[in-house]
Amino acid sequence: MREVSIILPIRASKAKEQARQAQHRHIAPHGADRWRIRRPGGDDAPLPIRSTRPTGGPMPAPRHLAATSLAALAALSLTACASGGAGSAGDSINATLGTDPGGFDPALARAADDYVVDRMLFDTLLRKDDGNVLVGGLATDWEAASASDYTFTIRDDASCADGTPITPTVVADSLTRFADPVTASTGRTLALGGASAEITPDDAAGTVHVALSEDWADFLTGMTLPHSGIVCPAGLADPEGLLAGTVPGAFSGPYALTASQPAVSYEMTLRDDYDAWPAFADPLEGTPATTVTFTPIADPATLATQLLSRGVDVASFSGEEVERFDGDDAFTPTQVTGLTSYLLFNQREGSPFAGRPDLRRAVAQAVDGVALTDVLTDGRGERIASVSSDAVSCVSTDDGLLVPEDPEAASAALAGVPIRLVGTQLFGPGNEYIAEVLRAAGADVSYDELDNANWSTTTGSPTGWDVTLQGDINLMGTLTSSLLRVMGPSQEDGGRNKTGVVDDAGYAALTEAMAVVDPEERCGPMQAAQASVLETVSAAPLAAVPTTVVTAEGISIRAFDDYIDPSTMRVVAE
């Protein structure tokens, strides 16, 4: 691998120009009759951006993540090979991923591509339908006796890819591993909070009982997470093989992984014996493809060209490429919003933001949220007042709680402060904008742009970074999902929190809300939890990022509210 200099796209240049415009008040004299934006070391020239990418093979694409509750479609574009379609004949679908999956162990899923492949390979007890309604997956019935007491009836006709029946014991063994803190699943705190779980199967009755040590009202929704996918006995017996995808009998979902070549392709084959499709209120049309092949592809501009030429038949876009389909009746656009963005600070020892809410506030003061939203979303996004989108229940819409832009105050606090900014390629222009305004405020900024998988790994580490523009896929469509990114157990302790600080007041309010079964009654403590995040500036909300899914004739895929389920891909008659 070698480092390659990449010429910035137009949108990145736009980010720099927006940064300069946003900083027009922040100027310093230079000589007798010149003015310039003040930068560390007196250098006011634009800094080149360098991107470390492998050469000699497919170049990882920026992650255009669809804002989904269970999976992201920005990592997912699909080519259908139905009659008259592109590619080989038959009912195969050629799909794409932004980068290689991190593995095939659903409990260890961390990034968008992981969620996509896990949804295809592993079934969960429950699934999500329109209106945040739950429907059965491997469970036919479920009951919540309280916020800590749950019982599931397991369907009696489901089996693993190797023919092993999926009994309550199989389900309980898999969920027990998922719930074990030693497994360190990032989905654990979403599903259970800080509780431990006693999971008891009854094969004779066909049920699984779950007793949590603490109330967690989001548990049922947590059982829709790809992380909670049921791993069959063969996979549990060989965790290394499970992660590598080399255990054929591990899969409980509709597809089995039949070929895998990193950076080239991942082939999945529909199981002949599978008949456990969810009964959505609006039944799916068409037929599932016999073969789905996922291949890492290039950037969204190339993807748009392929879609227009019918090289691919469905793709998702979060940038200007979607304009190429405007007014074309051969394509149908569907917009979803569930991906939010906000500044997130590493508050562990060694970061300049540890114990320094004043410096975190100063960074937020340096950023013009309206300008950032425009740069990040090409004018399609909306400013947000919390870490979730306005469509999520109990979310705060009070922008009076946000840190107001104040470049002069930012400069007074940030001059000479070393800041390590890391960002995902998905938010390249937004990252560029932030780097520019922080340098203009006098901070000594180093910036690393990473593919989404490496960005997730880096910001999941306690060291090596100070601040990031967080792209938050709301996995469950709940406020809890986003709040746990900035409070509660840290990632090194098996949680989702990237900041490294629990936020005792905020997490106490969240825990209080999770003891309440009635969703409407949770809003009071949920408002308090959000207020704590904003007061301490553990996060600075910025933009909701819309994603448009464009489909051509011959393919369908289902959007449920603001989430798109890749396992609903179907070949339909044109």
Description of the structure:
The structure is a single chain. With 574 residues, this protein is of the alpha+beta class. Among the domains are: 12-45 and 337-546, Dipeptide-binding Protein, Domain 3 (Dipeptide-binding Protein, domain 3, Roll), CATH 3.10.105.10; 126-233, Dipeptide-binding Protein, Domain 1 (Dipeptide-binding Protein, domain 1), CATH 3.90.76.10. Strands 16, 17, 18, 19, 20, 21 and 22 form a seven-stranded mixed sheet that branches. Strands 5-6-15-14-13 form a five-stranded mixed sheet, covered by helices on one side. Helix 12 links the parallel strand 19 (418-424) and strand 20. Helix 1 (10-22) runs parallel beside helix 12 and helix 9 packs across helix 11 (407-414). The protein starts with a strand and ends with a strand. Residues 1-14 and 22-90 have low confidence and may be disordered.
How would you describe this structure in keywords?
574 residues, Dipeptide-binding Protein, domain 1, seven-stranded mixed β-sheet, five-stranded mixed β-sheet, 24% helix, ABC transporter substrate-binding protein, signal, SBP_5, SBP_5_dom
Please give a quick description of this structure.
The protein is built from 16 helices and 26 strands. The protein has about 575 residues and is of the alpha+beta class.
